[in-house]
């Protein structure tokens, strides 16, 4: 259960109504630019004005460990893309609830990006880092290669598998290994791996270090899904704390709206630096993230159908149990 803080005695004024206690929550995320929304919202009273006190922000190396921590009760909300959420829900048996959007793609430009690699790189914050001397020219050339992903069965592996398949390759021949994002560039440079899945700011760090971005696997995999990254909690926590869920949804809506502005995005980047551990210039070199206002059923259903075809899900998924009512002002 969430823990409420008692008001300080100085908050009581004669003849006034005492301030309501805030509800303490903990949040888990991964080290990406878009995750700066959480420390920004905490430090700029967006959570507190909605009655929430973020006591801790925990950074995980990849979404699967964060989901495991969520299931164990170590955090109340975590960031995860739709793919690892579906994997944990359908294959792992986790009782989850998708609460609010974190980041994703603008539907109006996603279709165009599928036909334009330059636009795709501007829209997609994910990439595949390769050496310019590797001889890799297309996703098909990843056949038989060692490719790093932050976690198995999650977004990196699934989207790369789709891109390789679409290019006429065989994803089953790839040797997928796990590697944290900050280690990807060095592993590609020294030949430990042939390629590595990245997300901003590490996609830009790859090219900034003289390596190449093979392409945008997210644009290949997703068709018209807008919300890709999501905030999720357990079904048990959602059932027991509806007011906290509503307050969290409103807070995320407000910070996402701010992050969608030019000035707001720069503030989010600055707030993300303690998480990503990169310099501000590297963070600013990245393309801005897109922040959807809500999640719809298609955002979960379409990835589930594609994951099933690729063999990452064991059976069709009824996503109705995952998605709860979204916040709309």
Q: What would your notes on this structure say?
A:
The protein is α/β, with parallel strands linked by helices. It folds into 2 domains: 3-105 and 225-321, 3-Layer(aba) Sandwich (D-Maltodextrin-Binding Protein, domain 2), CATH 3.40.190.10; 109-221, Periplasmic binding protein-like II (D-Maltodextrin-Binding Protein, domain 2). The chain has 15 helices and 11 strands. The chain has helices spanning 37-43, 46-49, 63-71, 82-91, 107-113, 117-123, 155-166, 184-189, 202-208, 217-221, 235-240, 242-259, 262-276, 280-284, 297-310, and strands at residues 3-4, 23-30, 52-60, 77-81, 96-104, 126-130, 146-149, 175-178, 195-199, 212-213, 227-234. The strands form 2 sheets. Strands 1, 2, 3, 4, 5 and 11 form a 6-stranded mixed beta sheet that branches. Strands 8-7-9-6-10 form a 5-stranded mixed beta sheet, sandwiched between helices. α7 links the parallel β7 (146-149) and β8. α1 (37-43) crosses α13 and α5 packs antiparallel against α6 (117-123). Mean pLDDT is 91; it is low at 1-19.
């Amino acid at each position: 259960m969430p823990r409420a803080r008692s008001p300080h005695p100085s908050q009581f004024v004669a003849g006034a109504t005492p301030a309501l206690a805030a509800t303490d929550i903990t949040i888990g995320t991964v080290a990406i630019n878009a995750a700066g929304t959480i420390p920004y919202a905490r430090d700029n009273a967006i959570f507190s004005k909605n009655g929430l006190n973020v006591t801790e922000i925990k950074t995980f190396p990849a979404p699967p460990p964060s989901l495991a921590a969520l299931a164990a009760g170590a955090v109340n909300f975590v960031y995860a893309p739709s793919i690892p959420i579906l994997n944990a829900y359908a294959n792992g048996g986790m009782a989850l609830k998708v609460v609010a959007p974190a980041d994703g793609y603008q539907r109006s430009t996603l279709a165009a990006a599928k036909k334009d690699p330059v636009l795709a790189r501007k829209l997609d914050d994910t990439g595949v880092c390769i050496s310019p001397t590797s001889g890799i020219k297309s996703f098909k050339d990843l056949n038989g290669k060692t490719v790093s992903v932050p976690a198995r069965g999650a977004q990196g592996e699934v989207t790369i598998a789709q891109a390789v398949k679409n290019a006429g390759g065989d994803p089953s021949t790839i040797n997928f290994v796990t590697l944290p994002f900050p280690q990807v560039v060095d592993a590609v440079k020294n030949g430990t791996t042939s390629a590595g899945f990245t997300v901003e700011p590490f996609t830009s760090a790859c090219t900034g270090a003289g390596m190449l971005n093979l392409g945008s696997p997210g644009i290949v995999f997703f068709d018209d899904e807008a919300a890709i990254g999501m905030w999720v909690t357990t079904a048990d926590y959602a059932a027991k704390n509806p007011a906290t869920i509503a307050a969290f949804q409103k807070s995320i809506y407000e910070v996402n709206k701010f992050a969608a502005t030019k000035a707001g995005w720069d503030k989010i980047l600055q707030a993300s630096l303690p998480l990503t551990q990169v310099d501000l210039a590297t963070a600013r070199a990245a393309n801005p993230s897109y922040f959807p206002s809500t999640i719809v059923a298609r955002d979960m259903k379409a990835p589930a159908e594609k994951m099933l075809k690729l063999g990452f899900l064991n059976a069709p998924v009824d996503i109705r149990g995952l998605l709860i009512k979204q916040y709309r002002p």
